[in-house]
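Fold it.
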Amino acid sequence: MIELVFVRHGETDSNKTHTIQGHLDTPLSEVGLVQAARVGESLKNDTFHMALSSDLKRAKSTGEAICSANPSLDNLELLEVLRERCFGDLEGKPYEAMVEALKGKNSSEKSDWGPPNGETGPMFRTRVEKFIKVLGEKSRDLKQDVPVVLVTSHGGFIRDFNFTLVEKYKCKMPGKEGEYGRIAPNTGVSRYRMSFNEEGGLVSVECTQLYNKDHLAGLSITEPKLYGL
C-alpha cells in the first residue's frame, strides 16, 4: 500500500484569464509562486519517499517549491505522462473557444471528442491509466511499509484520474456526491491510499482528502472553469 499526495500546480496567468493551456509550457504567475510556497509550507512536515511531477513548468515549479520546503525530499522526477491533456489547435485560445467547439454535442460525443492535433477523450484516459501503472511499478521499489508519494500535475489530469478511480476501481470519495468531478483549485491537495499487486496493477483505492485548500486562506483565488468535457 502507498499513500499518494496529489497536488495541482499553482496559478498561471492563463488560469486567471481562462485561456486554454493544455501542453503550453506556461510559468507560474506571481500569485502562483505564493501558492506554491504556501502548499510547500503546509506539507513540510510530511515524510515523502518519492516525488513525481509533470515536466511542464507550472507543475515542475510547484513540485520544486514543495521539495525545497521538505527535508525528506531531494529529488523530483519529471514524467511526460503526467502532463495536462493536449488541446492541440485550441491551446492559447480563450475558454469560449472550447465551449463553441463542443456546442451541440451530447455527453457521449463529448467524451470521445478531441480537438484538431490534440488528444481525444479515450487517448487521455489511456494516458491516465498508464500513469497509474507507472505509479504501481515505481512503488514496488519503495521499501517502507506505507511509502508516501508526492505528485504534482494539472487540474484536468487529476479530474480524469478521479473519474478513472471511481468508475473502474470503485474508489470511495469524500465530500458531496460528484465533488471529485470539479477541477481542483490551484495547489489543491488530495490524498489517496492505494494498494497494488506484484505486477504493479491497482487492486484497491480510497480517497481520504479531496482538493484541500486550507493553506490558501486569505489569498484571492481564481476559480477554475470546467470546459464542458
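The longest strand covers residues 202-212.
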